[in-house]
Design brief:
Strand content: 5-15%
Shape: elongated
Largest sheet: 2 strands, parallel
Distance between the termini: 63 Å
Length: about 150
Protein backbone atom coordinates (compact mmCIF):
# COMPACT_ATOMS: atom_id res chain seq x y z
CA UNK A 1 0.00 0.00 0.00
CA UNK A 2 2.90 2.48 0.01
CA UNK A 3 2.00 3.68 -3.48
CA UNK A 4 -1.61 4.39 -2.48
CA UNK A 5 -0.55 6.23 0.68
CA UNK A 6 1.92 8.33 -1.27
CA UNK A 7 -0.78 9.16 -3.81
CA UNK A 8 -3.01 10.46 -0.99
CA UNK A 9 -0.12 12.59 0.33
CA UNK A 10 0.54 13.98 -3.15
CA UNK A 11 -3.15 14.77 -3.59
CA UNK A 12 -3.23 16.66 -0.29
CA UNK A 13 -0.12 18.65 -1.22
CA UNK A 14 -1.70 19.56 -4.56
CA UNK A 15 -4.87 20.66 -2.77
CA UNK A 16 -2.86 22.75 -0.32
CA UNK A 17 -1.19 24.51 -3.25
CA UNK A 18 -4.59 25.50 -4.62
CA UNK A 19 -6.00 26.45 -1.22
CA UNK A 20 -8.79 23.85 -1.40
CA UNK A 21 -7.93 21.97 1.79
CA UNK A 22 -9.67 24.62 3.86
CA UNK A 23 -12.95 23.84 2.12
CA UNK A 24 -12.70 20.02 2.10
CA UNK A 25 -14.02 18.81 5.42
CA UNK A 26 -15.14 15.21 4.83
CA UNK A 27 -14.19 12.11 2.85
CA UNK A 28 -16.92 9.49 2.55
CA UNK A 29 -15.59 6.00 1.93
CA UNK A 30 -16.71 2.42 2.26
CA UNK A 31 -15.48 -0.02 4.90
CA UNK A 32 -13.23 -1.99 2.57
CA UNK A 33 -10.01 -3.26 4.14
CA UNK A 34 -7.93 -1.81 1.31
CA UNK A 35 -7.84 1.54 3.13
CA UNK A 36 -5.13 1.37 5.80
CA UNK A 37 -5.43 3.33 9.04
CA UNK A 38 -2.50 5.47 7.86
CA UNK A 39 -4.73 7.10 5.24
CA UNK A 40 -7.19 8.19 7.95
CA UNK A 41 -4.26 9.63 9.92
CA UNK A 42 -2.97 11.54 6.89
CA UNK A 43 -6.42 12.95 6.17
CA UNK A 44 -6.91 13.75 9.85
CA UNK A 45 -3.66 15.72 9.80
CA UNK A 46 -5.14 17.81 6.99
CA UNK A 47 -8.34 18.27 9.09
CA UNK A 48 -10.39 16.09 6.74
CA UNK A 49 -12.74 13.78 8.64
CA UNK A 50 -13.25 10.28 7.23
CA UNK A 51 -16.86 9.14 7.30
CA UNK A 52 -17.55 5.47 6.73
CA UNK A 53 -20.60 4.28 4.82
CA UNK A 54 -23.26 2.27 6.59
CA UNK A 55 -22.67 -1.27 7.79
CA UNK A 56 -24.17 -3.93 5.54
CA UNK A 57 -25.56 -1.43 3.06
CA UNK A 58 -24.21 -2.86 -0.20
CA UNK A 59 -26.50 -0.78 -2.42
CA UNK A 60 -25.57 2.60 -0.90
CA UNK A 61 -22.94 3.30 -3.53
CA UNK A 62 -25.30 2.35 -6.36
CA UNK A 63 -28.05 4.61 -4.98
CA UNK A 64 -25.71 7.60 -4.72
CA UNK A 65 -24.27 6.95 -8.18
CA UNK A 66 -27.81 6.93 -9.58
CA UNK A 67 -28.62 10.24 -7.82
CA UNK A 68 -25.43 11.86 -9.11
CA UNK A 69 -26.21 10.62 -12.63
CA UNK A 70 -29.69 12.15 -12.39
CA UNK A 71 -28.29 15.42 -11.03
CA UNK A 72 -25.73 15.58 -13.78
CA UNK A 73 -28.16 14.75 -16.58
CA UNK A 74 -30.95 17.07 -15.44
CA UNK A 75 -28.93 20.01 -14.14
CA UNK A 76 -25.15 20.12 -14.44
CA UNK A 77 -24.91 19.13 -18.11
CA UNK A 78 -27.35 21.95 -18.96
CA UNK A 79 -25.98 24.70 -16.74
CA UNK A 80 -22.89 26.85 -16.87
CA UNK A 81 -21.75 27.21 -13.27
CA UNK A 82 -20.00 30.51 -12.58
CA UNK A 83 -18.62 30.03 -9.06
CA UNK A 84 -19.04 28.11 -5.83
CA UNK A 85 -21.93 30.27 -4.62
CA UNK A 86 -23.78 29.70 -7.88
CA UNK A 87 -23.17 25.94 -7.61
CA UNK A 88 -24.51 25.87 -4.04
CA UNK A 89 -27.65 27.78 -5.03
CA UNK A 90 -28.22 25.51 -8.03
CA UNK A 91 -27.75 22.37 -5.94
CA UNK A 92 -30.15 23.63 -3.25
CA UNK A 93 -32.76 24.48 -5.87
CA UNK A 94 -32.33 21.10 -7.59
CA UNK A 95 -32.57 19.25 -4.27
CA UNK A 96 -35.83 21.08 -3.52
CA UNK A 97 -37.15 20.21 -6.98
CA UNK A 98 -36.03 16.57 -6.66
CA UNK A 99 -37.66 16.02 -3.26
CA UNK A 100 -40.79 18.14 -3.57
CA UNK A 101 -41.83 17.99 -7.20
CA UNK A 102 -39.95 15.56 -9.46
CA UNK A 103 -41.84 12.32 -9.97
CA UNK A 104 -40.15 9.07 -8.95
CA UNK A 105 -40.96 5.79 -10.62
CA UNK A 106 -40.45 3.81 -7.40
CA UNK A 107 -42.97 6.01 -5.56
CA UNK A 108 -45.80 5.59 -8.10
CA UNK A 109 -45.07 8.96 -9.73
CA UNK A 110 -45.02 10.86 -6.43
CA UNK A 111 -42.20 12.97 -5.06
CA UNK A 112 -40.57 11.90 -1.77
CA UNK A 113 -41.88 14.89 0.22
CA UNK A 114 -45.28 15.16 -1.48
CA UNK A 115 -48.32 12.93 -1.28
CA UNK A 116 -49.45 10.97 -4.31
CA UNK A 117 -51.89 12.77 -6.60
CA UNK A 118 -55.46 11.55 -6.76
CA UNK A 119 -56.80 10.74 -10.23
CA UNK A 120 -58.93 13.46 -11.79
CA UNK A 121 -62.59 12.83 -12.35
CA UNK A 122 -64.19 13.39 -15.78
CA UNK A 123 -65.80 16.65 -14.62
CA UNK A 124 -62.38 18.17 -13.76
CA UNK A 125 -60.71 17.02 -16.97
CA UNK A 126 -63.03 19.17 -19.12
CA UNK A 127 -61.83 22.37 -17.49
CA UNK A 128 -58.26 21.29 -16.84
CA UNK A 129 -55.72 24.08 -16.67
CA UNK A 130 -52.04 23.48 -16.08
CA UNK A 131 -49.58 26.03 -14.70
CA UNK A 132 -45.86 25.78 -15.41
CA UNK A 133 -43.19 27.13 -13.08
CA UNK A 134 -39.63 27.43 -14.34
CA UNK A 135 -36.75 26.94 -11.95
CA UNK A 136 -33.10 27.80 -12.45
CA UNK A 137 -33.74 30.00 -15.44
CA UNK A 138 -35.84 27.43 -17.28
CA UNK A 139 -33.57 24.40 -16.82
CA UNK A 140 -36.18 22.73 -14.60
CA UNK A 141 -39.93 22.90 -15.16
CA UNK A 142 -42.65 22.13 -12.65
CA UNK A 143 -46.28 21.63 -13.62
CA UNK A 144 -49.40 21.70 -11.45
CA UNK A 145 -53.12 21.91 -11.88
CA UNK A 146 -54.62 25.39 -11.67
CA UNK A 147 -57.34 25.73 -9.05
Amino acid sequence: MPGFTQAIRNLLMDLEDTGCVVRIRFLIRDRDGKYPALIDEILGGARIATILTGVRVPRMNAIMERWVKTLRGELLDRTLIWNEAHLRRALREYERHYNEHRTHRSLAAAAPLRSRHQPLGPDRIERLAVLRRDRLGGVLHEYRHAA
